[in-house]
Amino acid sequence: MSDMLSKLSERILSILPGTDCKGLGGCGKGSCRECAEAIAGGESVALCPACSQEQVDEIAEAAGRETVPVQKKIAFIACSGAAAGKDRFAACPSCEAAKDAGFIRGECKSGCLGVGSCVEVCTFGAMKLEEGSVVIDREICNGCGACANGAACVQKIIHMVPADATNFIPCSSAEEDEDVVRQTCGYGCISCGECERACPVGAISIIDNHAVIDYDKCEGCEACAVKCRKKIIIDEYHDITELKEKVAFVACRGGYKAGELYKSKGFETCAEAVKNNDPKALELCTTGCAGLGDCTRVCRYDAIHVVDGTAYVDVEKCVGCKDCTYACPKGLISIVPYKGAKMVPCSSTADYEEKNKVCPVCCEGCKDCMNNCPNGAIFFEGCHAVVDTELCENCNVCQYVCFKGVIQERAVPEYNYLQRDALGVGKESE
Known about the structure:
Radius of gyration: 28 Å
Largest sheet: 2 strands, antiparallel
CATH class of the largest domain: Alpha Beta
Number of domains: 3
Structural class: alpha+beta
Number of strands: 16
Distance between the termini: 65 Å
Strand order of the largest sheet: 1-4
CATH architecture of the largest domain: 2-Layer Sandwich
Helix content: 25-40%
């Protein structure tokens, strides 16, 4: 190398961030010195991904070349860190050793291993390990890319994304079976494709059974977050607390007796109680809530609680992810429209006399609601009323004629402009 190039490389080296990525950084060079020499030799003045725009401008000026625009990137771990055998892997010396140890049933084979090999290679101190989960400080991360190197993350789930990105999908699961995904991790992508179909700019694709965002196309709207069935897509810009189309509904409001009885018999879960008991023999509703909270344990949003022995949904917190519907062994929980519609919290298939023996708040099966509904939105199924939410106009007639006051009303939420726009509410047909 000539003296001129040598002096230039030294000058460039002094401008670079100065903490060596040990050959793992995004520049592809073995050291910061090699990176500086490559830039001095003619490679891009923005070769080091950790450089700020000011540093790139300074390098360009020193080299006598035109500067280039810099898109600051930061590291993102495409995993919620919720289910990958963390307790077993904690004693492993590295993530590679953990992966070599293998996975067992119920562990995500694609997720973060939680050992922290990526933390060790981060020379800027932007990553730390907290209770088996890797946490990235976005203010410190400068996008060097060392953690995303396959030598650091053997799962290859750390990606460099634009620092100003607002939408993220924290999952890399390659599992094909939706039920397995749900059982393994509450944040797992089930590859339903709703986000892909909803994206107005084609920025989302289903790759290896999970959704992936193309940030070169993503415009940061909230359509994907709205349509995600599992509600796992993180939107850091918009308020999506009310941005939902559907929520969970428990078709029972009289399970108080069952829950106490099952507890007295030593059962801790609804699944165990249902499997090992005959409700009729115990003078319980055969279709009612078991009241032991299997649904509450899987809810990531604290949106469902057992009150007086019956599961109730807090619609302000519920996002309609369906996890509770899979957890209920009696199939009592369904997903219904968040916007106004009437609901019948009873699923009893017994006749009038049998119902009243075990539950004072059941649907009588009188059919007054069905006979008086002006839209024909109510029908009977197994001796209880069911509301067709597609036909229901929330007119209140059914509530008026129901002498037991069984039928409940779903409040109509107020939508702000962004939410209405993302959902297509009120848009004129073309």
